[in-house]
Specification:
RmlC_Cupin_sf, single chain, 271 residues, 7-stranded antiparallel β-sheet, mainly beta, Jelly Rolls, 5-deoxy-glucuronate isomerase
């Protein structure tokens, strides 16, 4: 399973369900949930999780805590609040909208926590047609977890992100070993993965690309179509890291950004 079209892994109550076992790896998982006012109860088991509103709002109850997530109207309208769910926890979610639940196999148990939208670090990365927005809501230096790392990337139509192509499949002082999930909204767009794991897929809302190894990028947003993706990453290292290695053929691209302007369509919405 590499390219996962929308709907192909649906299993009630989940609109999308990717477990480490289904992906053929060890750590990363992702579920999405579509709610119209009903309540869903589930158990986190051996995975730590987040509840991230893609659209709409919800109430999350776990470990005696009641967390109200105000959410947003869409992934392009705003940065959202979110919450953290520890391993071995029964959870109830009630709401209206669509919600992503990134997950990672974990061993340490952290408390249930609320992540306010105002504290999410927002980064404008690249320049020119490589300008994109990164919402680092669960990056290693932004939110504490055991294994889970997750960020959102928003790419204006006509731009490229995940560029230059990069990888994180070798342990070194400059690179971490990470499994990675790309979950898409908007589009259509295109995602490339190569170097031992080959994908060239047209992607749109609800589609997923899995990256167990190899270079990934670019993620391409054709003119007229903004593209969003949620990255979920996890790996075996004790310290969480997003360290990567550029494809050496294309690493020079970073040096061109100093002479280019940042796309004035960024940032998306209120930040």
């Amino acid at each position: 399973m590499t390219f996962v079209p929308a709907g192909t892994t649906a299993r009630s109550p989940w609109a999308l369900e990717i477990t480490p076992e289904a992906a053929g790896w060890t750590y990363c998982g992702l579920r999405t949930l579509n709610l119209s006012g009903e309540t869903v109860t589930f158990h986190t088991g051996s995975s730590e999780m987040l509840v991230l509103p893609l659209s709409g709002s919800c109430l999350v109850e776990a470990d005696g805590e009641r967390l109200s997530l105000r959410g947003r109207s869409s992934v392009f309208s705003d940065v959202t609040d979110f919450c953290y769910l520890p391993i071995d926890t029964e959870v109830t979610v009630t709401g209206e909208g669509r919600f992503a639940l990134p997950s990672a196999l974990a061993t340490r148990r952290f408390p249930v926590r609320y992540g306010p939208a105002e504290k999410v670090p927002v980064e404008i990365r690249g320049a020119g047609q490589a300008s994109r927005q990164v919402n680092n809501f669960c990056a290693p230096d932004a939110f504490d977890c055991d294994k889970l790392v997750s960020v959102e990337v928003l790419t204006p139509g006509g731009n490229w992100s995940s560029y230059p192509p990069h990888k994180h499949d070798t342990a070194s002082a400059h690179e971490a070993v990470l499994e990675e999930i790309y979950y898409f909204e908007g589009g259509p767009g295109y995602q490339r993965v190569y170097g031992g794991h080959e994908v060239m897929a047209e992607v749109s809302s609800g589609d997923v690309v899995l990256v167990p190894r190899g270079y990934h990028g670019p993620s391409m947003a054709p003119p007229g179509y903004d593209l969003y993706y949620l990255n979920v990453l996890a790996g075996p290292a004790q310290e969480r890291s997003m360290a990567f290695c550029d494809d050496p053929r294309h690493a020079w691209i970073r040096g061109t950004w100093e002479q280019q302007q940042i796309d004035d369509r960024l940032p998306f919405g209120r930040v």
